[in-house]
Structure formats: C-alpha cells, structure tokens
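S1.2 Input.
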Amino acid sequence: MAESMRGLHRSHRCTEVSAANIGETVTVMGWVQKSRNKGGIIFVDLRDRSGILQVILEESDCGAENFAKGEKLRSDFRFVFDTHLKLNKARLNELKVLYIPKMGFTDDAIASLAKIACDLNEQTENLGARRLHTIMEKLLADIMFAASDYAGEQFIVDEAYVNEQLRDMIVDRDLSNFIL
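S1.3 Output.
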C-alpha cells in the first residue's frame, strides 16, 4: 500500500472528520486498528494519534479493485483513505453523531478529586488508581449522558461541581466500601 501514499497529503485527522465534511474530498492516514469483512461490506477502524475513525467499504461504491485491497487489510497495516465523502440517504436515519464537550478542570477540582480518592483509599481497601477511575466515572456520568446538550461548549469542572456530584460518596462512607 506504500505506493498509494506517494503525493498524498493528510487533509484531516481521524477525529476531525464529521458530518460537516459531507461533499468534500478528504484524505485520512493511519493504521488499521481492526478490519471486519461482512461479505460485500468491510468495516475498517482507522487510527492515528487523534483517535479512531470507522471507514466503510462497500463493493458497489468503491469498485472491485479497491474492495479487493480492502479485503487484504490486517491490523497495523498503514492505510490511506482518500475519497469524496457522500451521505447514504438510505442510512440517514441510522447516522448518529456523538458530540463530546470540551472539558476543563480547575486546580481546586483536581485537588478535591485527589483528596476524595486518597481519603476513600485510606478508610477502605486501598485500590489506588482503580478507585480514582471509578470516581471519575461517577463524576462525569451526567455530563456524558447529556453530552449533546453541551455540543461545542466548554464545560469547566470546579470544586463545587465535584462536591455536588460526589456528595453521596463523601457523606456515606458505608456506600464507599462498595465502590471500586
């Protein structure tokens, strides 16, 4: 596939391709994370340092020659996807875009999270980073559930938000025993 990379320049990273690019020609480069051939359609998870993009190759759309190349893709192969993006109107209702808000944490929020994790580890079984991971999941659950409401906005997590979201965990130490 190296011969297909000559003269091509990346126009987008994997996480930059969105519904706004429909009708444009994009060039995305990366490595194959996973490839699944479902007979007549191949799903390729293309990764670069920004994230993963799912590329769908349909024999009827890309032609037999390109589809045959797609069938040979394996994990960690380098891959260039250079195409004109089009919207499949039959699948328009299936198109779901997840918008994740830009997030920031204030210094006092980080200090509060560290203190809560440390206190819980001292008072219950010390699980180290696993406890912090669970605390972060609980803290961010509401934001992620309503992520589309915050699309394009920046959401700042401060100490007050941390204390509000983790109030049950801070107050009820018995409940903390059951939280990894």
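S1.4 Remarks. The chain is about 35% helix and 25% strand.
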